[in-house]
Write a structure and sequence with these properties.
Elements: E1 3-11, H1 16-32, E2 38-46, E3 59-62, H2 72-85, E4 90-94, E5 98-100, H3 104-114, E6 119-121, E7 124-126, E8 157-159, E9 172-175, H4 177-183, H5 196-206, E10 211-214, E11 219-221, H6 234-248, H7 254-262, E12 266-269, E13 272-275
Amino acid sequence: MTTRVAVITTASSARLAHLHRQRRFLREAQSETSTAGIDLLRIEVWLDDAAPQEVGNATVLHLPPGAHGMRVGAARNAAARHAIEAGADLLLFLDVDCLPGPDLLPLSTDAARRRPDDLLAGPVTYLASVQRPNALADLPALTRPHPARPDPAPGALAHAAPTDYALFWSLSFAVTPRVWERIGGFDEAYEGYGAEDTDFAFRARERGVALTWVGGAHAYHQWHPSGTPPWRHLDDILRNGRIFAERWGTWPMEGWLEAFAAAGAIERDGDGWRRAS
């Protein structure tokens, strides 16, 4: 039995080098899983104002930024619609910064066969700046999953408690089309940086979709410069955080908000936050 897996990535010119490496690793992963009953469909959604100049071996969609920045949620929704229309059995979302581990495709596919009604998420390792793997075989030695997320044994499926949905990351996850439609996709009100992935997880919880951690389905986040807290995304975080709080009654990204407040950049505004006056 063949499973058609759509690997969906949102991309931009700022991450072109990361995208090239991801494409190469996916080709290698596809070659290694060619006998595992996986038919790979590659979909990239370009988020820049301009369409990409080169597209590689993928279906490419173009979704320019909105009034408040890149529309990651809307881009994923567009890609999911395309994948479902193309007959995909599984939607696997992989952030442009992430490389697929050797077992990401087969273990995600196996998990979807075992738990077809769940939201499936695997562990993510953040690579250091000096770690530049050249092939799939380089990745296992670099495995060091983020300590704040579950890391089940390879092949094991661990079910999240209701309080654990806030741990969901959209860096690497998979759903069947019927689960995608049950959740309703990403909320397109979120533009720019932050909160859309936690909102997606909370929507899944609200609709009774179980969150399952997939042991061994590793992804590897390629290093890039970033701030802690991410200062260039401050206004996005305030705007998206406010949308999230109005919907769910709590603010996301609390650690970053507290760091911004400690630096004097934001202040409390009732139950929320605003730029310091």
